[in-house]
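Why do we bother with a discrete structure alphabet at all? Because it lets us treat a fold like text: something you can write down, compare, and reason about line by line. To make this less abstract, here is a complete entry for Lipopolysaccharide heptosyltransferase 2. Read it the way you would read a sentence in a foreign language you are learning: slowly, and without expecting to understand everything at once.
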Amino acid sequence: MKILVIGPSWVGDMMMSQSLYRTLKAEHPDAVIDVMAPAWCRPLLSRMPEVNQAVAMPLGHGALEIAERRRLGKMLKANGYDRAFVLPNSFKSALVPFFADIPRRTGWRGEMRYGLLNDLRKLDKSAFPLMVQRYVALAYDKTRIHSASDLPQPLLWPQLAVQDAEKQAAISAFGLASGRPMIGFCPGAEFGPAKRWPHYHYATLAQRLIDQGYQVVLFGSAKDHDTGQQILATLADDSRQHCRNLAGETQLEQAVILLAACDAVVSNDSGLMHIAAALNRPLVALYGPSSPDFTPPLSDKARVIRLITGYHKVRKGDADEGYHQSLIDITPERVMTELETLCPRPGV
């Protein structure tokens, strides 16, 4: 069976989609799975052994461009795919498999995709409360799976593999200290400060970890670099040498490898959080307005800290510098306690 998956466009969603690929391979061991996704996803897909190849989606997020999607579909028709799974809910995301004449095209109804999808599922959100459950459910016949309780357990969570030699090479390439164990911080969040633990809390935690013999490495995109600099500036002068701000300085591939080399990770609700979970790193995930009830970190080694309930759709917090009070109220001491639980022997 040859399968084309139209993958998500966000890091966290892409990581959770691996549960579908793992499930498909478990059900159909000889299946060949290709995933169409933005080019930046390749470093993630290349570490998923279930994926045969990443097929680049050249169109930007939000672009309709029906003619170009038709051209892509006609080009992919020669691959002879038997099935397609469309993970985004948009109308446009279902066009390529339709134009490729793939016989069976599966996905949730989404934006009224009648005709484009011929194995159309109507989503009961209460029956499948987690995004990962919604992905995995597509692997099974819709007459068999009516709710998350019908899914085979345990779910096959995302897993990324990184070799020890890769870790050592990356540590050396970035000049990180080989004698101090690393704790990774992911202080950014896609939609601004309302989803971020305050930089001064990160700095307090970093200072304590450095005093215990750790080095702290900050990860994120270029737009998170300034947040990393705020954390650095808050540290004692003689501690800054043990904190490295790599936000904006790594490619995604390098960030994955270095996160795999960390003894533990502290992260806001972000794509990097989901990567750390898939790497099976001890992880403390910090939630505020966004809810872990839909997209939690999928790992037995993850601990979620959240002080409020429900989902709050806010882009700017209710406190100074745009932070949300619920995240301000999570103390560095609380996070340190969770880290000590995950890593029973802190320090060196």
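What the structure line is telling us, in plain words: The chain has two domains: 2-150, 164-342. DSSP finds twelve helices and twelve strands in the chain.
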